[in-house]
Design brief:
The chain has about 130 residues and is mainly alpha-helical. The protein has helices spanning about 1-5, 10-25, 30-35, 40-55, 75-90, 95-105, 110-129, and strands at about 55-60, 65-70. The protein has a two-stranded antiparallel ribbon.
């Protein structure tokens, strides 16, 4: 469900969600200040309201302002979005997706990171049997 919901967001809505996930919670002015080439304050408020209606955000009142928080934890959304990407762009192949990520990051991965990845693969082998 989170996958379909996140995939259906507009570019601006995804930007807002990214900001709120990064901060944990934020008001409309904070969100607007952190957006690239931000729309008007009223447009940001309208998008926050729409995201709340879609079930992505909830709000709490702090004094005179609303502060928005994500409904679904970032870790759950991350997994859903990644699953959607694997299905969409890699024909459901986790192997192809991981190989592509390693190829893209080859120069950035140090020995310690590669060792951790190797241990994750070993654990997956053991648990998968």
């Amino acid at each position: 469900m989170a996958r379909a919901m996140y995939a259906a967001l507009s570019r601006r809505e995804r930007q807002i969600m990214d900001i709120i996930y990064a901060r944990g919670r934020a008001g409309a002015a904070e969100v607007r200040d952190l957006m690239p080439d931000p729309p008007s304050y009223s447009a940001v408020r309208a998008m926050l309201r729409i995201l709340e209606e879609k079930g992505h955000l909830r709000h709490e009142t702090e004094g005179q302002r609303y502060v928005f928080l994500p409904v679904v934890p970032r870790s759950k959304t991350r997994r859903s979005v990644l699953r959607h990407m694997v299905e969409t762009f890699f024909d459901g192949s986790t192997e192809q997706a991981v190989a592509t990520l390693i190829d893209l990051s080859r120069e950035d991965l140090d020995d310690e990171q590669l060792s951790r990845l190797s241990r994750l693969i070993d654990r997956a082998r053991k648990e998968g049997r």
